[in-house]
Amino acid sequence: MLKQHIAKLSHSPRNKPGDESAALDSNPAPRIEPGDAPDSETQAQASIPLSTLSFRDLLHEVRLDIISRPGRNALTALGTMVGIAVLVTTLGLSASLNAQLEARFDALTPTEITVTSTPDSYGPGDNLPADAPNRALRINGTLAATTLTEIDSTNIKTLTGTPGYNPTAANNNQLAVYAASSGIGQVIGATIKGTIFSDWHDATGQPVAVLGRLAAEQLGITNLALAPVVFINSAPLVVVGIIDQVQRNPSLLQAIIVPHGYATAHLGVKHIEKLLVETVPNGADIVGNQLGLAIRPDNPDLLNITIAPTAEQTRALITSDSQTLFIILGIISLIIGAIGIANVTLVSVMERVPEIGLRRAIGARRRHILAQFLTTSLTLGFIGGILGTETGAIITVTAALTQNWPPTMPTWVLACSPLIGALVGLTAGLPPAIKASRIQPTEALRA
Predict the structure, then answer these.
(1) Which alpha helices (DSSP H) does 256-404 contain, by range?
(2) Are 331 and 418 in contact (CB under 8 A)?
(3) Which of 217, 334, 357, 419 is most buried by a 10 A CB count?
(4) How far is CA 87 from CA 73, 325, 329, 387, 398, in A?
(5) Of 183, 189, 187, 237, which is closest to residue 215 (Cα–Cα)?
(6) C-alpha angle 48-44-358 in degrees, rounded to nearest 5
(7) What is the DSSP letter of 251?
(8) For residue 123, what is the DSSP state?
(9) Rounded to whole angstroms, how far apart are CA atoms 173 and 231?
(10) CA nearest 306: which of 112, 40, 72?
(11) Residue of 155, 130, 132 lying closest to 142 (CA atoms)
(12) Residue 231, strand partner residues
């Protein structure tokens, strides 16, 4: 047995010096076929996990980034806060100004409707009934109604006033005399010293009169306590009121107004010239469409109904221009804030090149670096957005109350402004974050 074993050793090839590579090649690494169990070394290499960054770790890194540089990050958030505050303030002031303009335009919106009789072949027409004001008042949206008829000057022979009549004044016959019903004061928006004649005065034809301020001055009547009287065709009429100011029909300031019942009985008035109707704001069109049937249900075409034009187009243009101006100012402020965030983030990346390179060397991936810087920028933008929204709301309310405007803030502005701040921070931080994610480990050594 021993001789046979020695013989085998003597016939086996021997490795010569320099044949180490041949020896290595003669013993290749074992191959793992399907179904074979891997050895311990191969299993250890396959079990090495890839580098990951959990959401919790990301938030922890962002928190450390923010608190490690409080001054710089505070200034970064301040830039966003200023931009959002300006945006919220401009939009809030724009809304408040628009509300004020709406109120002013509503006050100026024509609310007067004029109804006249259609002329016929026999003259001016007599198609307005005596109870036309009462019929108009039955329409929902009507505030007041009155008849108004200018008395023909040929029916006025003499016109004087007492006490204090000034014979050197201009010819008093030049003063216009109108017949009206009791709603005249409210329809024309009159400010009156004294009172307006009532329905009773109109129905019974009482000899009373109301003077416009300029007419009263011309007649020398300034004090109602002296029971002044005007004489029309030598008939006395007691002055019960003086119209000091009017919102509509300013020509009545230089006129004398008597009850329609008196004018019919004594001044030759045969028909009603026109009906004036005062409506609620923005109600003239609705009321005007119903007046014809309400006054003359038998033949509405006998009436001409005139509604003053509105200023809706002017209102829309002013509102649009003011909103556009304020939005442009807010966008400019946001751009300035975004530039501030981008600059601060870029400086932070340049200062942290060694740190970023080291993290890449120990396994951090590009997307981990990108996510960290983007989340930091987004967080700073969101914080700045919240603070800016609160600041802008406070400024808006204070400025609006100072100007006696109704404080108005669109709800979508308060809801979206923090999100806009976060979006600004995310957008501004994107280029620096991409630059940080591209830093290689070798750059940390050069830095």
Answers:
(1) 260-266, 284-295, 312-351, 353-361, 366-402
(2) no
(3) 334
(4) 21, 11, 7, 12, 16
(5) 237
(6) 35
(7) G
(8) B
(9) 11
(10) 112
(11) 132
(12) 160, 236
Q: Kindly state the DSSP code that residue 365 receives in the 8-state scheme.
A: -
Q: Which two tokens stand for residue 310?
A: 């509105």
The tens digit of pLDDT for each residue in 409-442 reads 888 888 888 998 888 888 888 888 888 888 787 7
Per cent of the chain over pLDDT 90 is 25
Cβ atoms 193, 251 nearer than 8 A: no
For residue 2, what are its two tokens?
């021993």
Query: 316-319: which pairs have CB atoms within 8 A and are 24 or more residues apart?
Result: 318/101, 319/98, 319/101
Task: Name the packing angle between helices 366-402 and 411-437 (round to 10°).
Answer: 150
Residue 46 tokens, joined? 């396959």
Pairwise CA distance, residues 392 & 416, whole Å: 13
Asked if 211 contacts 252 with a C-beta cutoff of 8 angstroms, the reply is: no
Residue 104 main-chain phi, psi, to 5 deg: -65, -45
Q: How many residues are recorded in the chain?
A: 447
CB distance 130 to 272 below 8 Å: yes
How large is the angle between the packed helices 312-351 and 411-437, nearest 10 degrees? 30
Q: What are the start-end ranges of the E strands in 78-201? A: 112-117, 142-150, 159-162, 176-180, 191-194
How buried is residue 232: exposed, middle or buried, by Cβ count under 10 Å (0-12/13-18/19+)?
buried
Please, are residues 24 and 15 in contact by the beta-carbon 8 Å criterion?
no
